[in-house]
Structure formats: C-alpha cells, structure tokens
Write a structure and sequence with these properties.
Blueprint: H1 2-10, E1 14-15, H2 22-30, H3 53-65, H4 69-92, H5 97-110, H6 112-116, E2 117-118, H7 122-140, H8 149-157, H9 163-181, H10 183-196, H11 206-214, H12 217-221, H13 233-251, H14 258-273, H15 278-292, H16 300-320, H17 328-336, E3 341-343, H18 345-353, H19 369-379, E4 394-398, H20 402-408, E5 413-419, E6 422-427
Parallel strand pairs: 1-2, 3-4
Antiparallel strand pairs: 4-6, 5-6
Helix pairs in contact: 1-4, 1-16, 2-3, 3-4, 4-5, 4-7, 4-16, 5-13, 5-15, 7-9, 7-15, 8-9, 8-10, 9-10, 9-14, 13-15, 14-15, 17-18
C-alpha cells in the first residue's frame, strides 16, 4: 500500500530544474568521454570533477529508451516506490500495519517535493531508506550484513551527492551503537565506508567536487534547491508532518536509540538550513514514531484493492507521460543558431538537449564564482544581473518570471518568438 501510494505520487511527472542537464552529459559518457567541463556551456568550466557520472548515464539511457521525460518519470515513480517500500518494511519489524500506514502517509505528505518532482535526488529517495532499513535491522539484530553498507555507499556516491548524509547516518550508528559492542568491526566498516565515497570517476578529486557544491553561489545564497525552511505551503506541510510525528513519539513514549537521536538532531539542523533535507529527517523520525503507536491490524481486502487502483493510476500517468517542461520549440530554435543562449534553468537544459549552447546552466558549481553570482542575479531579475546579456546572443525566459519581466522591458532585446508561456529574444548588437 505504502509503496503503491508513493509510486503514484512519483508518477505525476513534474520535471524539476535539476533533471535534464544530466542527459547531455550522459550522452558524452556513453560515447566514452568523461567530461572535465560542461560541454554545452560557453562560460569557462574547465577543471570540473564529474562525480555523479553514474546518474548521468542512467538519465541518458532512460531518456532515450522511453522517448524523453517519460523515462525520467518512470525512474521517479520507481525510486519513490522502492524508498517507501523499504520504509514500510523496516517499520513493520517493530510496529503494526496500521502504525506503518499512518506514519508512512505522514512522511509522504511532508516529502511531496522530493517525491513528486523529478530531480537527480531520486536516487537518494530510494537509497537513503534502504540504508536506514539496513541500520535499523542491525540495531535489532547485529550481523555481518553491516558490510552491505559499503557497496551501497559506493553505488550511491556515483549517483547523487546526498550520499554524504548517508555516510553521516552510518557513522552515527557505528560510533554510538555498534562501536560499543564491536569496536574493531565498527572502525573497519567506517573506514571502508569512507573509502567508498571515493569510488567514482573523480577518485581522489572527490573532496574538491563536494567543496565546490557546498560553496557554490546558489548554496551560499540559499536559493533554489538550497532554500532554507520557510513558511510556504510545502514547507508548512513538512513542518506539520514533523510536528505530528514528534508528538506521536513523545506522547507515546516510543523508544529511541542514541544513534537515532543524534542523527535526528543533525538532520533537524540541516532541514532548517536546507528545507529539502526534511525528507531524510522525516524518514528517520518515522521509526521511533511508529514504535510509539498501539498495535492495530488492517483489513487485507481494502488494502489490496487500494494497491491495485494506485498501480493502475500510476501506469496510466506513465503511459501518458509528463507534461512538456518549458518550450521545446523555442529551445530548438535557439539551439539551431549555434550561438550562446542565456536561459532559465529548464529552458536552458532543453537547449542543451537539442545540441545548442548556453552561457551558464546546471551543474552551476562547475563555473567560476563570479559567473555563478552574475547568473543568479539575472535569474532574480536584479539590475546587477543585466551584464549577463553581454555573454549571449539569445535570451530564453518564461514570460511571467523575474528575468522574463526584466527582458520584456530591456531595450537591448528584440522579441523573436513566443510559445507555451516562454519567450525567445535576440540580443541587439551594439552600434
């Protein structure tokens, strides 16, 4: 039931701003070339270290195998179903079916952005619950299965940067629980798990990649996916789900292990700083909350019926495919010029998919700090971002966005075409 519900939400197919850029990089990898710069961008990016190469290959293969974004929607639905399936199975070891369903539904409701929006974080959506499932199982019955965490971190490290969160979770368990019983084993697993973070295409350059991501302009400003916890509707849903789970745990006097408590404190601090970390906080909080609920059984027949309906609905959505993001027609028109395009995130990635060139795009951490800041100023519609136009021959924006409104009033731009709410401008040559 839980996996079916999560898979249905994941199949909604909302393409996020951190999805399509992996496809053109995956194409280069598929042809045997490891990128050391962003090939579809005109801004300097030499020296970039391509740690998530595995994710790029997967996205490229899915995008071409299933005719576009439908393949990415399929991956999102599968990741959501797997992640919440592992959550439900882990909770079921120490809680009733009714408790599992209630707690999982709260986690899903508070995690809607990560579940419903297609982004590269879909890999973490599947692998974080799997790691948590392994660690919770080891807390109940310690075994040599703890070594499975090492290849899991190695795989995860090739797919998404949230592997750092997974490593921190493993460290909490090993140091605060397993280390007290088997210190040598815990130390060996921790060392091997730390080494697994380097098992990617960047090898010893891996720390430089993470440093550049954490110190990028978008991370420093708390913009986009790095936005802090606020008072928007989705953030309030996250806060509400977390508050209910905390209340269930505290008033129900559920058992909590020391390593869980320390990890929860760290993830709570991370969530306040970066709201999207709230999904990992909720997934871990689900375990002590489920233990605190009374044991109540559920009828099997309604559950089976709900699962069938959800799977059928998800299949219908995946067959239909996600709504086209941005404007493929304008992106193709801009790409055909062969000249640099200054574009908003998804629109720029569509230009790259059509073989065109943009000035700056994701992964934004690959570019010089000054170019990152200038691009973000332009995205925010600030006057200080107007200088970005000097780096492009075309501008591609959503009409109602901040850069779209600024472009409409800029005398340096001449409107070329409009489609699906997007507008393509040509930068006038200075006389």
């Amino acid at each position: 039931m839980v996996a079916g519900l999560a898979g249905f939400v994941g199949s909604l197919g909302v393409v996020g701003a951190d999805a399509l850029w992996l496809v053109p990089l995956g194409k280069q990898l598929a042809h045997g070339q490891l990128p050391h710069a962003v090939p579809y961008a005109s801004a300097p990016s030499a020296g970039w270290h391509d740690v998530p190469a595995g994710a790029e290959l997967v996205f490229w293969a899915l995008y071409h195998a299933f005719g576009g974004a439908r393949g990415l929607a399929l991956a999102q639905a599968a990741a959501a179903a797997l992640g919440f399936g592992f959550l439900a199975r882990g909770l079921r070891k120490d809680a009733s079916a009714g408790a599992v369903l209630l707690v999982s539904a709260l986690v899903l409701g508070g995690s809607l952005p990560n579940v419903a929006v297609i982004n590269s974080s879909l890999f973490s959506l599947a692998l974080f619950p799997l790691l948590l499932f392994l660690l919770e199982g080891e807390s109940l019955e310690p075994s040599r299965r703890i070594w499975l965490c090492v290849p899991l971190l190695a795989l995860w490290g090739n797919l998404h940067g949230e592997v750092i969160v997974g490593w921190g979770l493993l460290a909490c368990y090993l140091v605060l629980e397993r280390g007290r019983r088997e210190p040598l084993l815990a130390a060996a697993v921790l060392v091997a798990g730390s080494g697994a973070l380097f098992a990617n295409a960047a090898l010893w350059e891996t720390p430089r990649y993470y440093w550049s991501v954490l110190h990028s302009a978008v991370a420093r400003r708390g913009a986009g996916l790095w936005a802090p916890l606020g008072t928007g509707a989705l953030d309030l849903m996250l806060i509400g789900a977390g508050a209910i789970l905390l209340a269930i745990w505290l008033f129900g006097k559920g058992r909590v292990r020391l390593w869980e408590l320390v990890a929860l404190a760290g993830l709570l601090a991370a969530t306040v700083h970066v709201a999207r970390s709230g999904t990992w906080f909720l997934l871990l909080l689900a375990y002590p909350a489920a233990r605190a609920l009374p044991r109540r059984s559920l009828r099997r027949r309604p559950i089976v019926l709900c699962v069938v309906v959800l799977v059928a609905a998800a299949a219908a959505l995946l067959v239909k495919g996600p709504q086209e993001p941005g404007s493929s027609r304008l992106a193709a028109l801009a790409a055909s010029s062969g000249r640099p395009v200054l574009a908003e995130a998804l629109l720029g990635q569509e230009v790259a998919l059509d073989g065109g060139r943009v000035w700056v795009e994701n992964p934004i951490d690959a570019f010089r700090p000054a170019d990152q800041s200038l691009y973000l100023d332009w995205l925010a519609g600030k006057p200080s971002g107007a200088a970005a136009l000097s780096h492009a021959a075309y501008v591609l924006v959503e009409a109602g966005s901040a850069p779209g409104r600024a472009a409409a009033a800029d005398p340096r731009l001449r409107r070329v075409a409009a489609n699906r709410g997007a507008v393509l401008y040509r930068v006038r040559t200075a006389r």
